[in-house]
C-alpha cells in the first residue's frame, strides 16, 4: 500500500488505503488500519485474558500501575520491585504466556510492512487495558534487546490522547488522538522516542475501556 505521509487529502474512492500521518522519521499513525478486525481482535484478547488475567504491576518504586496489563507471545513484559524485564512465564501462574493469536501476528506484520519495516516477527505482545482513570507517563520502550525492530501499537475501545515527544525526555511533545482501529508504528530513528497516554475519553457511567496491543521484538 502507499502511505499518505503528509496527511494530505487521499482518494476516498480507494477504501483499502487508510490515511496515515507521519509522526517523525520512521514513525506513522495508520488511521483505521485495524478497523475491519476489531471484533475478531477483541475476541482474541478475551481468550488471552482468560489464560493470563490482566493485572496491575508494581513499578520498581512500589507504585501500582493504573494500566492493567497482561501478555501473549514467547516473552512477556513484567514489572515489579526488581525492575522491568521480559520473561517467558507469567509470574502469577508460573505458566508460559499464552501464544500470540494468529490474528495478532498477521496484523502486526501487515502494519509494520505498511510503514516500511519488512519481516517484522514480534515475539512479545503486551495487552493493556485503560479504564477512565488510567494513564501512562512519558517513557521510552527500551527493555527490548533488538532495537532494530519497530514497535507496533493497536488501539481498540475508547479513544485516547497519545503523547509523542522526542528522543530526549525534555523534547517538545504533541498530542495525537488515537481512535479504535488506529495503529501506530515507530522504529528506526524514532525507536526510542518518548511517548505516553494522557488519558482516555469516556463518561464515568459507561463501563467502557480502551485496549491497546503493543507488539515488539524483545529478544
Ligand atoms: C498506547 N502504550 O497505549 C501506548 N508502553 O497507545 C505504550 O506506550 C506502552 O501501553 C509500554 C508498556 C505498555 C504500554
Ligand atoms: Fe510504550
Automatic annotation (TrEMBL):
Note on how the cofactor is bound: Binds 1 Fe(2+) ion per subunit.
Example GO biological process: oxidative RNA demethylation
Residue numbers binding 2-oxoglutarate: 128-130, 210-216
UniProt cofactor(s): Fe(2+)
GO molecular function: broad specificity oxidative DNA demethylase activity; ferrous iron binding; oxidative RNA demethylase activity
Membrane-spanning parts: none
InterPro entries tied to this protein: Alkb, AlkB-like, AlkB-like_sf, Oxoglu/Fe-dep_dioxygenase_dom
Binding site for Fe cation: 139, 141, 195
Positions bound to substrate: 77, 84-86, 143, 169
Residue ranges, annotated region (Disordered): 1-20
The keyword Metal-binding is assigned to this record: yes
Annotated Fe2OG dioxygenase domain residues: 121-219
This protein's UniProt keywords: Dioxygenase, Iron, Metal-binding, Oxidoreductase
Gene Ontology annotations for the cellular component aspect, listed alphabetically: cytoplasm
Entries under Pfam families matching the protein: 2OG-FeII_Oxy_2
Biased composition (Basic and acidic residues): 9-18
Keyword Isomerase: no
NCBIfam families (UniProt xref): PRK15401.1
Entry protein name: DNA oxidative demethylase AlkB
Amino acid at each position: 500500500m502507499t502511505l499518505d505521509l503528509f496527511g494530505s487529502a487521499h482518494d476516498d474512492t480507494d477504501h483499502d488505503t487508510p490515511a496515515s500521518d507521519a509522526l517523525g522519521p520512521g514513525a506513522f499513525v495508520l488511521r483505521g488500519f485495524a478497523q475491519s478486525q476489531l471484533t475478531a481482535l477483541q475476541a482474541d484478547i478475551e481468550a488471552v485474558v482468560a489464560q493470563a488475567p490482566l493485572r496491575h504491576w508494581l513499578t520498581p518504586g512500589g507504585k501500582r500501575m493504573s494500566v492493567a496489563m497482561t501478555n501473549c507471545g514467547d516473552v512477556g513484559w513484567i514489572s515489579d520491585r526488581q525492575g522491568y524485564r521480559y520473561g517467558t512465564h507469567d509470574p502469577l501462574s508460573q505458566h508460559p504466556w499464552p501464544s500470540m493469536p494468529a490474528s495478532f501476528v498477521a496484523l502486526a506484520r501487515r502494519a509494520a510492512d505498511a510503514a516500511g519495516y519488512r519481516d517484522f516477527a514480534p515475539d512479545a505482545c503486551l495487552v493493556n487495558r485503560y479504564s477512565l482513570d488510567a494513564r501512562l507517563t512519558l517513557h521510552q520502550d527500551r527493555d527490548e534487546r533488538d532495537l532494530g525492530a519497530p514497535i507496533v501499537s493497536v488501539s481498540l475501545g475508547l479513544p485516547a490522547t497519545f503523547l509523542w515527544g522526542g528522543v530526549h525526555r525534555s523534547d517538545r511533545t504533541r498530542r495525537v488522538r488515537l481512535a479504535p482501529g488506529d495503529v501506530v508504528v515507530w522504529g528506526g530513528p524514532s525507536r526510542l522516542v518518548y511517548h505516553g497516554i494522557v488519558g482516555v475519553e469516556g463518561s464515568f457511567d459507561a463501563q467502557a475501556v480502551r485496549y491497546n496491543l503493543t507488539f515488539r521484538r524483545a529478544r
